[in-house]
Amino acid sequence: MTGRTPRITRRAAIGGLLAAPMISRGAPAQTPLTVTWGEDDATPRTYDPRVTSSRHEYQVIGQIFDQLISSDGSNKLFPGLATAWEAAPDGRSVTLKLRTDVGFHDGTPFDAEAVKFTFDTIADPKTASEGAVTQLGPYAGCKVIDSHTVRIDYTQPFGAAVASYAEGTLSPVSPTAVKRMGNQDFSQAPVGCGPFRFVSWEQGRQVIMERFDKYNWAPPFNSGKGPSKVQRIVNRFIPDASTRVAALEAGEIDISDATPILDMKRLKDTRGYTTMIGDAAGIPFGLELNGSRGIFADLNVRRALAMSIDRAALCDDIFFSLIKPAYGPLSADTPGYWKGVEDYYKPDVKGAVALLEQSGWKPGPDGIRVKDGQRLSGFYGAPPPLEPDTAVEIQAVAKRVGIELKVETITFARNQALVFDNTFDTLPVRWIQADPMCLENLFASVNIPSPGRYKYNWMQLKDAKLDTLFDDGRAVSDPAKRDAIYAEAQKIIMDSALWLPIHNQVQTIATRAQKKGYHFARTSWVALFYDVTVA
What we know:
Strand order of the largest sheet: 8-9-10-1-11-21-12
Mean pLDDT: 91
Shape: globular
Strand content: 15-25%
Number of strands: 25
CATH architecture of the largest domain: 3-Layer(aba) Sandwich
CATH class of the largest domain: Alpha Beta
Helix content: 25-40%
Distance between the termini: 19 Å
Structural class: alpha+beta
Number of domains: 2
């Protein structure tokens, strides 16, 4: 299905008097406005916002669910399902006034009980939340003041609370649907109160959504009001980038996810196409180095690898400077970014070699360094969405200083096994979130994974001072004080050299110009379709 809208003839456009006889003669009805998205991940696991930590899955979730506080691609906050909010002076609670005219797709009214249900189930370990439970913060519970007023309580001050309500992870879910279906079935057929409702999910092929005709509570930054003009969304799984671009050019899809940079350059200058680049907030694309075992248990080896990579040159070579290099654990557009990270681990091949020599790693017969009979060799697992091409580039520059990285394209299941078994040396990751609190997901000791508990501190970083800083950062709402706290946290992370930043994470989107009105959601990754119209 192309999703194109048929050309309207001059006669049909004159008015109702002429249009009515045409319909009576059996003229075909106008094709419903459809947006077909080409998704680069073909293996989604869940569309439950309470559970997932995948931005691929949020591409669907973002159409189905609305947030308590809405936010646009610039990360500004607006009223959403909550019309007003008030944080307590001690930072231990936030009171929300909710809209009274909102309903879920299954007819369940949206109210304070729905917020309480959503937050309580996120906090319940049985839900197995990956992202939302961290976003929820030091949650103590919800107090229903009246049907449309709710107070969220915290066990300690939580300065990031208000901004957290704008994240898709905390989107309210239909209590009726969850209770009826259970968590597992709900994750396969989600029910929200956003502009589009879930229809079907054909594993490995596509997800279908349709317009929610009762929708009348769009955030104020949208240009449209009431139900969307888009009647149908097709989310097609096309993991191969060249196939995805070919589908765009053939008119089989309207908008392409994660479009290769070469194609972005070409399509930008080609009539009939438009492009969008979202510079995502949060933790940029980088590598977690396993500090608990293997070659990266040696601090000098970690630092040497970082110094062997010229990130600016890498971005020039692979991305034609359309993507900027990253220097720390936060992207430069994220609140709380500390510029001091830019002074760390500048490209220095001689310095990298000196560090390796200092640790006793001597050149072997094939150029790979050895020590006590062990090769300086590590495993680099590269899941397809996380840039195997970049892995190969890093592999090549590491080899120049005598570090061997064995690159292997892996599945998500293989990634999980490596994490749970702690048998990897380095794995790529990113985390998209518009608050420095996102650092906790990768660097807080509480997020070291354990069997059956998939968390993201794969590097096994345990630092009591860093954990204390994360607690302090959560508690403070004053921007200047938060910046100072998170600057110190970033310094500790950089000193550890367990995190190797590579480049800013960007969403490269190409669209067919016949439709317009696409825009980015908060953090500039997920594309929203509510405002799309025929150009």
